[in-house]
Amino acid sequence: MSKILVTGGAGFIGSNFVRMMLTETDHEILNLDLLTYAGNLENLSDVEGHANYTFVKGDIIDAPAMAELFGQHKPDIVVHFAAESHVDRSVLDATAFVQTNVIGTQVLLDKSRHHNVKRFVHVSTDEVYGSLGASGLFTEETPLQSNSPYSASKAGSDLLVRAAVHTHGMDCVITRCSNNYGPYQFPEKLIPLMIANAHEDKSLPIYGDGKNVRDWIHVIDHCRGIKRAMEDGVKGEVYNFGGDAERDNMFVVTEILKLVGKGEDLITFVKDRPGHDRRYAMDSSKARAQLGWTPTCTFEDGLKQTVDWYLKNKSWWERVRSGAYQEYYEKQYSSR
Ligand code: NAD
Ligand code: DAU
Fold this sequence. Notes:
By secondary structure, the chain is α/β, with parallel strands linked by helices. The protein has a domain at 3-184 and 216-244 and 275-297: 3-Layer(aba) Sandwich (Rossmann fold), CATH 3.40.50.720. The chain has twelve helices and 13 strands. The protein has helices at residues 12-24, 63-73, 87-92, 95-114, 149-168, 190-199, 219-232, 249-260, 285-291, 299-312, 314-320, 324-333, and strands at 3-7, 28-33, 53-57, 77-80, 119-125, 172-177, 180-181, 204-207, 213-215, 217-218, 238-241, 246-248, 267-270. The strands form four sheets. A seven-stranded parallel β-sheet has the order 3-2-1-4-5-6-11, sandwiched between helices. The chain has a two-stranded parallel ribbon with strand order 7-10. Strands 8-13 form a two-stranded parallel sheet. Strand 1, helix 1 (12-24) and strand 2 form a beta-alpha-beta unit. The chain is globular. The termini are far apart. The model has no long low-confidence stretch (mean pLDDT 97). 2'deoxy-thymidine-5'-diphospho-alpha-D-glucose (DAU) binds next to helix 6 and strand 8.
């Protein structure tokens, strides 16, 4: 049994990972999260009080607080999810992205090294590789060519993790995954936003021509990959995870409309995202061969389950969409 510090465990992927680890393992989980607009303890209300679960509110850029936390809890393993994660927000203002994603990651690496953490798992993204043309896949050898402030900040953090391995001999692995979907995703991202808007008969804003392609993966398949990388990944290695489910945005949105039972008249084409990456698609053969991992959920099943979850959990997304999110939504979509 190990003590695992999970950063960003109150967010979308982190909360699914914490639940999976508490259900499937006997590891002790310490969830560290600042509870920004994207972090919500309600995502984990079902595991509150679990004997192996502790939550601590804190900011990963706060070095003295992190020194105290590492000194007090002495984690064996760090699984690092905490980040600013939304591309559109990074276009509006990149400051928090550089602070949390770059500086915050270095703070965690420093504290992990000083406190002899045995393994540091850095959760990163396929967006660091940039954009693909009509064919080809991202491999772990694809050069980093980030195009958005978000992905540039993630690439910066990936390089800091690489440097910690090469300079200080730290035992780190980096995972890079494609677009996740599933329960507890904040409704600013494409799939939950479109489900919520369709349900409420609001317009569905599609950027540009709607032909941008993403490689969709169910969040639980991603979490299974992170767990395998944590357990058996090789020090210093990068592992790609993808869903083998390339779909363009128009396809995704029209499928959602069918599942929600609404018509295509709700679709509105709006001004494109600046610097919008055209296509992402992952080659996950290394993770399959070396970690015995494979995605198990088809996009069709996963999307149906996800739409059902959002329709059953309307009170969850209504609550997270109140307050500060309304201001962001106005700013993001009113001038398009
Ligand atoms: P999210 O925005 O839902 O959650 C991020 C969490 O980090 C929130 O709980 C937030 O409160 C917390 N956080 C933010 N700043 C913090 C700080 N300074 N200190 C402590 N906690 C802080 O994001 P997500 O979609 O769950 O993504 C999690 C990680 O996975 C990110 O690193 C992201 O880059 C990566 N990733 C996401 C996807 C995807 O499709 N969503 C795909 C690949 C990789
Ligand atoms: O690829 C992994 C990345 O996927 C993660 O690293 C990021 O954290 C995550 O946010 C996601 O980034 P994307 O920019 O691909 O996801 P998003 O859901 O914002 O957009 C998906 C596609 O849908 C993209 O082509 C933009 C488009 N889109 C999005 C929104 C919010 C629209 O057309 N309209 C919208 O309103």
